[in-house]
Amino acid sequence: MQIIPLSEGAFTIDKTKIFVPFELEQDDLQQRPIGSLLVEVQPFVVITEKDVLLIDTGLGFSKNGQLQIHQNLLAAGIPPERITKVLMSHLHKDHAGGVSKKDRLGNYHLSFENATYYIQQKEFDFAMETGFPSFMAEELSVLENHPQVIWLNGDGSIDDYIQYQITSAHSPHHQVFWIRENNETIFFGGDDAPQIQQMKTKFVAKYDFDGKKCMQLRQQWWDEGTQQYWKFLFYHDIKTPVWG
Question: Is residue 25 scored above 90 in pLDDT?
């Protein structure tokens, strides 16, 4: 399987939940508000024998009238229409901003016109009920009743090679993915396992729905994955997007 990180850059985020661009070589984290976290925003493409998978969709920012994630895909030699499946860990705006795009009339359309989207039904319901600032309900509303969306309910598998599991750790209906093909395993932990250093320490984050469960799951996945030679994908890791 081929893995392609689609970096959208580094950002700081504080209690306002606003993502502010951060230039690693120029900006000083100490000059940002107290408690600011420095994170990467990084969806992934995984090319398998069956699919061109996109895992989470980034912030949804546009440059010169084109979605940044579309630009990043094209730079990697992948036209957006080649994406066959979109796997969503959860619908927080930094992971789901690129789910849809707005046309000149103000109407939203799916950003990946040939793809099937896989989303937990309860995650969507929670996002629409909760709304701003964590979720962009207007951008997500196009998903409702859309024929290209497959609504998941609990744990399961897709096409016998993608496994998904509800964790209820970072957020109430968060899910993680294992992609298995030809004796290779790729693991995506979303915001349950966002950075490699969190896998190696007993770190409990106040921003998680269940920080203790996140910590326990990270330890479990790290032990199992290192023994079984998984490839880990880290959505918010600036230096190590892929490990293994």
Answer: no
| AA letter at 156 | G
Encoded amino acid at 11, one letter: F
Is the pLDDT at 60 greater than 80, yes or no? yes
Say whether pTM exceeds 0.90. yes
Contacts 24+ apart (CB under 8 A), 124-129: 124/91, 124/151, 126/171, 126/172, 126/173, 127/91, 127/96
Report the chain's mean pLDDT, rounded to a whole number.
94
CB 100 within 8 A of CB 110: yes
Burial class (CB in 10 A: 0-12, 13-18, 19+), 14: middle
| Residues linked to residue 143 through DSSP beta bridges, in sequence order | none
Is the Cβ–Cβ distance between 3 and 46 less than 8 Å?
A: yes
Bridge-based pairing of strands 184-188 and 231-233 is parallel
Rounded Cα gap, residues 120 and 38, in angstroms: 28
At 43 the pLDDT is 98
State pLDDT tens for residues 170-224: 999 999 999 999 999 999 999 999 999 999 999 898 889 999 999 999 999 999 9
Contacts of 236 (CB under 8 A, 6+ apart): 39, 40, 41, 42, 191, 194, 195
Class of the CATH-defined domain 2-243: alpha beta
Q: Give the separation between CA 238 and CA 128, rounded to whole angstroms.
A: 30
